[in-house]
């Protein structure tokens, strides 16, 4: 869990590396683009911009480190959920709501993933290693619990991953076009909750009307 | 339907504008990036690269025109489907399979949408106008038919859009990371079909085991 904690320097202050990540996170959260300059990051953090190169070997490395930090927090919450003693179907529902909350909390995360994903092969491999593979692993464990409890029919965990994450991320991914479509022009807390309810119902129960009476 | 047809010049040859779009489509289909140069487009089409500026006012305009052409073809197929005389639930299934086929046929389309979507507000509005709004409209008609037939429970058409398109596009969106995860390292025809089967079952029936006997 060391990666999740905040590193302090010898004087107990938040270390420069963390301050650069915090500044980048704050700037990305305020804007609709990843185009922030090293000078802006330096100004926000109160540090020399040369430190970005020192700690991260440039902006791409800084963005990857930020994703790694955000992903570690989200994955640690998911790991906690997997270990809980509760009905497997409730875990599955909480997981879906959790994914939506991560995208809501870090509005820049899908943009970050997109850029890293469409970059070079090294970046794609890093992204798979730090985020996608662990996420798939935790999902597969929840699915397996649901299956063994007899709650759900068989589902391929890999295809499940693309369905759930794709459906969650696309709403946030699309926010620039929201003002030009029917519905709310931005992602409010209410839209986020409505979407979570919709998705949970959709994924668990499907669209078709069930012919049986409620139990 | 004029937009969908191929424009010919006075001598019956495919017009220069179409040849530039065809060359761009072919190049984008071969590569994993939108970074193709005007010189490459010129060489592939056998035309002077100044014509890109003449017809499209630059590369961004060319990419938007290409998306508009691909979208028009896909939307025209969807319009045809909506007008068919068949059970509404079958239309819904064929629509979901159709969306996956569009992403399979135009492997560059999500990259194109991403770039345009994260661009300036004019581009986002154009994207909403030429693609997203008409797609939502056709989907809402199919959903309404299913509802009136008593086949499905209520579903918000806008949220449905984000769920279905997001789940479809994410598989294709993620193809750079596929080699580093379990499962096939690339999107084969079989993976595409498996995903379509999975998604149709997921969206229509949901994950939960139904307690009633099959009818």
Automatic annotation (TrEMBL), chains A, B:
Signal peptide: none annotated. Residues 14-74 form the HTH tetR-type domain. InterPro entries: Homeodomain-like_sf, HTH-type_TetR-like_transc_reg, HTH_TetR, Tet_transcr_reg_TetR-rel_C_sf, TetR_C. Coiled coil: none annotated. Pfam families: TetR_C_9, TetR_N. The keyword Transcription regulation applies. Keywords: DNA-binding, Transcription, Transcription regulation. The keyword Transcription regulation applies. GO terms for molecular function: DNA-binding transcription factor activity; transcription cis-regulatory region binding. This is Regulatory protein TetR.
